[in-house]
């Protein structure tokens, strides 16, 4: 069952880079799909998603999860929202969100979490726990899963159905083997149309595991083992949510926390990924997945790996940050962690590549739930050096001197404190930028990326 392999690499000349580890997975031939031609920002009118399990034991009385969905409406007219799910006990929800406002709703029952209470691990199961959200206007949707005591938290941006695809590479927690849980890593694959063939490639050694599922059904795997770089293929667009029930990030102490992202299809990977650690981390950890064989990775212009294959992935640790570039498209994922003073906690966050940056405004909600109000919340704005005096959060335009360079790149970032409410980041000169919203408290944190330029099928 040891079909994963780790090997340390020690040829690092750059002082910012603390370590780089390459992982690999043996597997079958991989199919490639032709990417759609158009690109658009990820707000939309139809979303399909699920909550990954965050219930740490088999007693319903112990941990209690608060599951929420926040719908933010940047459009000029009010949006009518309907949320449905086939899961027994879920009641259909209908509400409206005024122009410029955000509305948070609580999703019950907690058993709607995939693989709730961990009954099925190391087994791929088909479940009916998908939520479908339909809006009359383009909206931005973010989910949150947190325990009542604010522990075990993460959030993810929901990618609209129009931006889903047919090939994904899973990301999981790399410290899962240290966990005390039956499962730690978990992902779910949701069908958006009937008769969807889902293939889980590289899980086990006996070839792809195939499932044919209908609209709103999903294939879920929860496992004690590593999941990074498992490949999901489908013959129709699918939604994939990936992470850990309770991962440890880099600082492997006794407290674990949920880590989640909704993945985007691999045809959105890019060549230039700027990275810097998040507040208040001691150092930064991020993972890089590759899309093609013979991929060479460079950190701050220095070649760090040559000839990586599609089966490889790399875990980088940085003192502060670095600029990761490659000769073929790559994907970067930030892994948050608790620092030595017990501040912050594990989370997963997309690291937008330059081709995922946008130039149109990004509107997002902060600290929607009462139990989140004690967190320190930030909007990280990343842009190119030519735009640093021109980025605006609501009516605040930070001075260009307040930005920090990301490795040896032309990308700079600023972490702007944000209060609970709805905020908008925009560019005064039409320059491109990305936003990561994150927050943290004592042994807890979340992060999500509210606006990414992703391929679209054209029917948002
Ligand atoms: C990458 O190389 C492997 C092994 O050599 C091969 O099986 C696979 O088809 C290649 N994939 C791509 C995308 O070229
Ligand atoms: C779960 O709750 C039961 C009582 O409701 C308690 O006996 C048990 O120790 C708790 N388990 C954990 C892991 O907290
Ligand atoms: C899911 O829904 C399908 C179709 O209604 C049903 O046949 C199946 O038994 C359900 N599966 C579970 C695990 O509830
Ligand atoms: C599983 O699906 C893949 C397509 O993703 C196909 O090539 C393969 O033949 C299928 N295997 C089985 C056993 O059905």
TrEMBL record:
Cite the entry's keywords alphabetically: Signal
Domain IgGFc-binding protein N-terminal positions: 155-439
Top-rank taxon, per record: Eukaryota
Point out the signal peptide segment: 1-15
Record field: transmembrane: none
Q: Does the keyword Electron transport apply?
A: no
Which named protein is this?
IgGFc-binding protein N-terminal domain-containing protein
Protein's organism: Caenorhabditis auriculariae
Traced from the root, the source organism's taxonomic lineage reads: Eukaryota, Metazoa, Ecdysozoa, Nematoda, Chromadorea
């Amino acid at each position: 069952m040891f079909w994963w392999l780790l090997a340390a690499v020690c040829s690092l000349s750059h002082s910012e880079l603390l370590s780089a580890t390459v992982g690999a997975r043996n597997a079958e031939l991989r199919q490639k799909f032709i990417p759609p031609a158009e690109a658009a920002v990820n707000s939309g009118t139809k979303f399909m998603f699920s909550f990954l399990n965050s219930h740490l034991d088999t007693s319903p009385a112990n941990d209690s999860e608060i599951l929420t969905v926040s719908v933010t409406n940047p459009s000029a007219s009010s949006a009518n929202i309907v949320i449905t799910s086939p899961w027994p006990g879920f009641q259909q929800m209908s509400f409206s969100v005024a122009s410029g406002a955000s509305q948070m709703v609580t999703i019950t029952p907690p058993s709607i979490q995939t693989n709730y209470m961990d009954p099925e691990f190391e087994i791929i199961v088909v479940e009916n726990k998908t939520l479908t959200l339909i809006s009359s206007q383009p909206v931005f949707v973010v989910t949150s899963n947190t325990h009542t005591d604010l522990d075990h938290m993460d959030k993810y941006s929901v990618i609209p159905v129009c931006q889903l695809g047919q090939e994904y590479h899973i990301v999981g927690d790399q410290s899962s083997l240290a966990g005390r849980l039956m499962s730690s890593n978990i992902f779910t694959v949701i069908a958006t149309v009937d008769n969807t063939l889902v293939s889980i490639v590289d899980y086990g050694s006996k070839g792809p595991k195939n499932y044919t599922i209908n609209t709103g059904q999903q294939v879920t795997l929860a496992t004690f083992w590593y999941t990074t770089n498992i490949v999901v293929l489908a013959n129709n667009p699918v939604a994939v949510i990936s992470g850990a029930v309770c991962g440890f990030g880099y600082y492997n102490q006794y407290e674990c926390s949920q880590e989640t992202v909704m993945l985007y299809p691999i045809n959105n990977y890019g060549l230039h990924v700027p990275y810097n650690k998040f507040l208040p981390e001691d150092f930064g950890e991020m993972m890089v997945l590759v899309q093609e064989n013979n991929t060479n990775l460079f950190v701050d212009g220095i070649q760090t790996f040559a000839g990586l294959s599609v089966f490889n992935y790399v875990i980088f640790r940085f003192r502060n940050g670095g600029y990761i570039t490659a000769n073929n498209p790559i994907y970067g994922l930030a892994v948050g962690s608790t620092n030595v003073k017990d501040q912050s906690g594990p989370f997963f966050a997309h690291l937008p590549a330059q081709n995922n940056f946008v130039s149109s405004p990004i509107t997002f909600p902060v600290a929607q739930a009462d139990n989140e109000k004690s967190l320190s919340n930030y909007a990280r704005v990343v842009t190119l050096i030519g735009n640093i005096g021109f980025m605006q959060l609501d009516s605040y335009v930070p001075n260009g001197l307040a930005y920090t360079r990301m490795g040896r790149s032309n990308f700079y970032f600023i972490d702007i404190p944000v209060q609970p409410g709805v905020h908008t980041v925009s560019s005064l000169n039409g320059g491109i930028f990305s936003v990561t919203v994150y927050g943290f408290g004592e042994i807890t944190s979340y992060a999500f990326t509210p606006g990414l330029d992703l391929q679209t099928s054209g029917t948002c």
